[in-house]
Design a protein that fits this description.
The protein is an all-alpha fold. The chain is 61% helix and 1% strand.
Length: 299
């Protein structure tokens, strides 16, 4: 779908606020609604009109029960804050503070960093698969710039991307991108221990690029920022020296983020939700399947 095609298709914009683009549909009427128009329902969200119809159709007993057990809430306004983004930032900073505790921080870092041989009992005698994702929680404790830049990027991207995708899709994107980064390290940097959420952050960059292109936004700035970050990533590899950067995690996270975003943009209708889940499960299975390759390469 081209940018012009997308802009002419009104189904891609909130039916109540026609200048707002969204991927979220009302679960009853299947019309596109922006975060301001979303009210949480038993499954998904509903628009203000469907909510009013639902309340009118309720029996007196149902209305009485709702008044008794429900908390007071606005009818047509839902919480569109990027809660998942804030939660990830808070948890990550908490673990960074733990890393700064003398005598204990090194234990935290060692327990959560990613080192590919820990996945293969035949090599190290241990099997610690949690490291594939726990690496997102720990950063270089020798300086604040590593965690600060990652969390700043997460804050900037998450505020725009999470309300657009929804909380569960955003969390799925973040975790799969982080998993993709770890898998890439296992394949391309097997003996290198790594820390940091950079793989997941690059996945968000890639997703923002694909989704921005899909909704017809100006993505020039995203391309420039991503290009600068890739140059910084590969500069130590090409010229030597400088800060050690896991380019494998960056590239792996970026590619998985692009793939997941492509799935989101092609399976956004209610009828395609099951297809979306199966495709995301296939991506997860494919990444796990790639982890069976390193023992043959580095045996």
């Amino acid at each position: 779908m081209t940018t012009d095609d997308f802009r002419r298709n009104r189904d891609n914009f909130c039916y109540r606020h026609t200048d707002r683009q969204s991927f979220v549909l009302c679960q009853r009427c299947l019309r596109t609604i922006c975060p301001e128009c979303q009210t949480p329902a038993a499954v998904g969200v509903v628009c203000p009109e469907c909510l009013r119809d639902q309340q009118k159709a309720a029996s007196p007993a149902q209305r009485k029960a709702e008044r008794r057990w429900s908390r007071p809430r606005a009818v047509s306004v839902s919480d569109s804050r990027p809660i998942v983004t804030y939660a990830i930032i808070g948890v990550t900073l908490f673990f960074y503070l733990l890393q700064l505790i003398p005598g204990f921080g090194s234990v935290v870092t060692e327990a959560l960093l990613f080192w590919a041989p820990y996945l293969y009992p035949g090599i190290t005698g241990t099997f610690e698969p949690w490291r594939l994702l726990s690496v997102l929680l720990v950063h270089d404790p020798s300086g604040i710039w590593h965690v600060a830049l990652n969390m700043l990027a997460l804050w900037m991207i998450g505020r725009s991307l999470e309300p657009l995708l929804g909380r569960w899709r955003f969390l799925t994107l973040y975790l799969l991108s982080g998993l993709g980064g770890s898998v890439a390290v296992a394949l391309l940097g097997f003996s290198t221990p790594v820390v940091g959420a950079s793989g997941a952050i690059y996945g968000l960059f890639g997703a923002l690029l694909i989704i921005g292109r899909h909704i017809g936004a100006n993505i020039t700035g995203i391309i420039v920022i991503l290009g600068i970050n890739l140059v910084i990533t590969f500069m130590p590899l090409l010229f030597g020296g400088g800060v050690r950067v896991s380019w494998q995690a960056h590239v792996g996270g970026l590619l998985v983020g692009i793939l997941v975003a492509f799935i989101f943009t092609r399976t956004r209708s209610v009828q395609q939700q099951r297809v979306q889940i199966w495709l995301l499960a296939a991506v997860t299975a494919g990444l796990i399947g790639l982890l069976f390759v390193p023992p043959f390469l580095f045996a």
